[in-house]
Fold this sequence. Notes:
Elements: H1 7-29, H2 37-55, H3 60-73, H4 75-93, H5 96-107, H6 113-128, H7 131-149, H8 153-170, H9 175-184, H10 188-217, H11 223-236, H12 245-255, H13 260-278, H14 280-286, H15 292-305, E1 307-308, H16 314-319, E2 321-322, H17 329-347, H18 350-360, H19 365-382, H20 386-403, H21 408-420, H22 430-439, H23 443-446, H24 451-465, E3 471-474, E4 479-482
Antiparallel strand pairs: 1-2, 3-4
Helix pairs in contact: 1-2, 1-18, 2-17, 3-17, 4-13, 4-15, 5-7, 5-11, 6-7, 6-8, 6-10, 7-8, 7-12, 7-22, 8-10, 9-20, 9-21, 10-21, 10-24, 12-13, 13-14, 17-22, 18-19, 19-20, 19-21, 19-24, 20-21, 21-24
Amino acid sequence: MTKKPSFFLALFPVLFLIVALSVNVVGVYGDDALSGSNQVILLLSGLLAMIVGRQMGVEWDTLFQAVGKSIANSATAMVILLLIGGLAASWLLGGVVPAMIHYGLELLDPTFFLPASLIICAAVSLATGSSWSTTATMGIALIGIGKAMGISEAMTAGAVISGAYFGDKLSPLSDTTNLAPAMAGTDLFTHIRYMAWTTVPSISIALIAFVFIGLGSAENAEVQQAVYIQEVLEMHFHMTPWLFAAPAVVVLLIALRVPAIPSIFSGIAAGLICALLFQSELLSILRSTDDAEGLYRLLMDTVAQGLSVSTESEMVNELLNTSGMKGMLGTIWLILSAMVFGGAMEGAGLLRVISERLLRLARTDFSLIGTTSATSIGLNLTASDQYLAIVVPGRMYAQAYEERGLAPENLSRTLEDAGTVTSVLVPWNTCGAYQSSVLGVATGAYLPYAIFNWLSPLMTLVFSFLAVRIKRITRSADSEVEA
């Protein structure tokens, strides 16, 4: 018979994880912690959670089934990660990414590059409903353009992520935007309209901040270097606007609600077709033999293992380098380890105990919304998955919101403000690991500049503290009243 662990016993694996990761990152490995040591800490923390669960009477089979279910829930994300690695490599070989950088350097002014990057990514993500696809297409190109201008990659990544998650959050095509109201018990468009009250101020502040950051970074921008980079790219790649057909295919398919995996596969194929049609000179240099087998090997090896194009410019060489699917294996290892920990915490019943204790503190509207936010952020840190950060508190707190007379859109908005957008700020979360790998920027480096993402949960707390736009249910009249 299973027993219920105490709050402090349930919290022990989490505390161990936080302390061990802090020692790992701050004291020993630094930025190299994601190369394997953090994965070991996550697995040890998962084992510790299992031991606690076993002491409470939970069977090993139950714990392993929970871990298996957790890993299964992340399987799609891991396949997408592999494909994104192949996409980046095929787009490099096809000249797609170099073309984005080349033409982007002509169109984007260094002074307004950062706010423009935010707006571009917000528009693409709003149209497609996918922050992941946005960063894997426009994000990669903007990182390269910013680097060519001499703008910090961390700043560019922050602007890209802020815009991508804003669009994802408000798009009716987004999976999380559909999931949150389903968990809270409201409809999609009511959720989006109500969420706009906190989301629009957050993105507006982020946009203004990037304008001022851009004014400062533009002073260090090297315009002549950008021109030189364009010339080097023209020497090694055939430049034509037709190369933009590859990202157009991906964006169109996602806008048509084609699932991510076939959409990205199509993008890989489009990149390889661009290579065959437009980069014949580059292919003849890179392939080992002149026959069909040599060409086949080049295409397959590029997608699987990546590609480096060597030029006379060190800066350009850094831009023309990708590790393909193989380069994503470390991130997949991190996600697997995080899912083991999250599944163990869930299977042992420790997450439920922690959340129930937090709910006892929720005696006012502000504290209830704050507790919901803390739970979502905590699940992003512990369960390492943004979907769990929406589903678990959504299930747990729906009744509490109803009993307090709060309309369900208060809950759905909080789940998105705190759960969806903070996932990318956690290095071992599926979203943080993904974005860091795709953009080539460490999570800790872009975190200060992902302004929209850390401002969103603060904004929802400000609104609840001031009792602004807190919609209530008047049961007697069977109608809703907004504070």
